[in-house]
Amino acid sequence: MLDICNLVKNYGKKQAVKGINFTVNPGEIFGFLGHNGAGKTTTIKISSGLLKPTSGTVKICGYDIVSQPVEAKKNLGYVPEAPYLYNKLTGREFLSMVSGIYMKNSYDLAKKRINSLLGQFQMSNDADKLIGSYSQGMRRKITLCAALLHKPKVILLDEPTSGLDAVSAKAAKDMFRKHANENAAVLLTTHILEIAERICDRIGVIYQGELIAAGTLDELKERASSPGSTLEDIFMELTQENKNETEKGED
Hints:
Elements: E1 2-11, E2 14-24, E3 28-33, H1 40-48, E4 55-60, E5 63-64, H2 69-74, E6 76-79, H3 91-102, H4 107-120, H5 136-148, E7 154-158, H6 166-181, E8 185-189, H7 193-199, E9 202-207, E10 210-215, H8 217-223, H9 231-250
Parallel strand pairs: 3-8, 3-9, 6-7, 7-8
Antiparallel strand pairs: 1-2, 1-4, 4-5, 9-10
C-alpha cells in the first residue's frame, strides 16, 4: 500500500504541500485531483523518491521512501507527467534495460511481458524504432509499459493518458483497473474528471497544498449542495468554498 503521513514540502518560503494524510489500499485506484500548482505532482515526486519531503513520511508497502529507497522502489511503478527517455535507444531496448533492473533473474518472463505490453499498447510495429523518432503519444505508451512491466504493488500515475489517442487511453484505463484488481494500489492524477469519475474507487481533492476532501464518489456527492452533482460540479464547489474561506481569512 501507499501511506502518506503528515507530508510537508516547502520551496523556500512557499509551502507547496501542507501536512497531508491519506492511504491508497491494495486493490484501489485513488484519484488525486486539483488545479495546476495545487501540490499533486510534488506529492507524487516525493512518493517516487525524486524529491525529499520537508517533513512527514511516505511508505511504499511499509518501506520509507527516504530511509529505505531501494526496498521501496522495488515495489513501485511510476509514470511522470513529463517522462525522460533515452532517445538513442529503441523502445524495446529501453524496456529490456528496465527489465534488467527489476527482473534480472527472469529473462524469459520479462521478454514475454515486454511483448504483451507492446501489443496491448499497439506498439509492436514501432518497438524497434529509436525513441527519438516517437511522437508524444508513443513516448507515453513506452513509459506506461516500463512502469507496469514488473507488476509493481504501488503505481504512481501523473496525467497518464496525456497525449494518448482514444484507443490507447481506453487500453491504459483498462490496464490500471486490471492491476488494481490484482491487488496493486494505484494513485492517479488527471485533469480529465470524467476519467476519475469512471475508474477511481476513491477521490481526494487537494487545494493550495491541503487535502480538502477525500472519499468515494457517493461520499463526495453527499457533501454537494445539489442532488445528482457530477464530479466536476463537486470539484468546483469544494475548491470555490476553500477559495472563499482563504479570502475571508486574508481580510
